[in-house]
Amino acid sequence: MSKIKLAMVGCGGMGGTHMRRFQTLRERVELTAAVDVVREKAEAVTDQFPGATVATDFHEVLDDVDAVLLALPHHLHFSVAQACLEAGKHVLLEKPMANYEVACKELIQTAEAKKRVLMIAYCMRFHPLVMRMKELLDQKTYGDVFQVSIWTEQLTRYPEDHWASSKERLGGGQLFSHGCHYIDLLLWFLGRPIKGMHMGTNLGTPWMEREGTSNVTLEFENGRLGYHFGTWGARGSRLRYAIHAHCTEGMIEADITNGRLVYIHRGEETVLLDAESGKHTENEMAHFLDCIETGQQPLTDGIGSLQGLRVIWKLYEAENEGRIADLTGLGLDEV
Ligand SMILES: NC(=O)c1ccc[n+]([C@@H]2O[C@H](COP(=O)([O-])OP(=O)(O)OC[C@H]3O[C@@H](n4cnc5c(N)ncnc54)[C@H](O)[C@@H]3O)[C@@H](O)[C@H]2O)c1
Q1: Ligand 1: does its nearest atom lie under 6 Å from the Cβ of 124?
Q2: How far does the centroid of ligand 1 lie from the alpha carbon of residue 71, in Å?
Q3: Choosing a second label site near 108 at 20 to 30 A (CA), which of 81, 83, 218, 288?
Q4: Nearest CA to ligand 1 atom 8
Q5: Which residues of 229-249 are buried (b: 16+ CB within 10 A; e: fewer)?
Q6: Is the sign of the CA dihedral 134, 136, 139, 143 positive or negative?
Q7: Whether this model's pTM surpasses 0.85
Q8: For 76-114, b where at least 16 C-beta lie within 10 A, e where not — what string?
Q9: What are phi and psi of 227, to 5 degrees?
Q10: What is the pLDDT of residues 85-120, one digit of tens each?
Q11: Strand 241-247 and strand 250-255: pairing?
């Protein structure tokens, strides 16, 4: 099979991460173009991929590619992804899909009409520790799961004129921008939510227009509970990035920071899996290529991703109105 030709659009922080993890896929995909409004950033990518074209406008490269990887400011996700899908390109779009529901729906419809893959880059779903945890929970290896808690503690501060410092361009606060990964994981692990609440603050992160610190509690149909604490204001941390799944026969910990999956039962610890720490975007890209080649629906497709964002929008709305959010009708298997 000939290699899939891909353009990297948006060569900033996350674009760079993708490119560093890309090397293992060179047999299957060819980076044909790197695009950034700041030409030097696109050139920095093509330094690693000699022969790839540099451009500052993505329209210029669309004729030469089969697919695009978009790592752009959130307020540009919709317009650029829509133009690429309209041009008949497969799209791997960084999270969150788009800042408004109507835009997400339009992207889903365009991908369907054009019969092109639209996949959202929820890289945590492709992390080996998270994938193994999901298998263990589904197989009830340690009994029934009744609580999953997720901590993401980091210090993230963008310059004042950066797009991510604006609530409008970011699409919300920490929960929308970063917590979307973990709402997606909670729905994946625990099923359909019925109610939930969010409490956020920007005390500690005054550079954020909306919350820089989030606490989310969700209750699911089967009585299970999910929790996410995320902050961009951590000046120190012990847990950093960790997922704890409490089951009736013990606890499974995915220590994302140190790359280890551990089973803990009454003080005894068993290491289940080690994995290199960092983002395993090479697995995500491999899945995107599989979907293009076989026509299968991505694990992180537009419909499921929209469900996760709907949960966040409902949580924000209920928080503003001082009530618990009704989340019935949401879940990755709903439409
Ligand atoms: N999956 C993850 O863990 C993760 C982590 C960080 C960021 N992200 C996501 O990646 C995306 C980008 O975030 P980032 O942190 O890399 O931001 P960034 O600001 O570092 O990079 C964005 C890049 O897009 C370029 N750009 C802006 N407008 C453009 C246009 N019209 N055409 C081409 N290039 C343009 C900018 O010059 C910049 O280089 C966001 O969706 C973000 O949520 C994902």
Answers
A1: no
A2: 4
A3: 218
A4: 14
A5: bbbbbbeeeebbbbbbbbbee
A6: negative
A7: yes
A8: bbbebbbbbbeeebbbbbbbbbbbeeebbebbbebbeeb
A9: -140, 140
A10: 999 999 999 999 999 999 999 999 999 999 999 999
A11: antiparallel
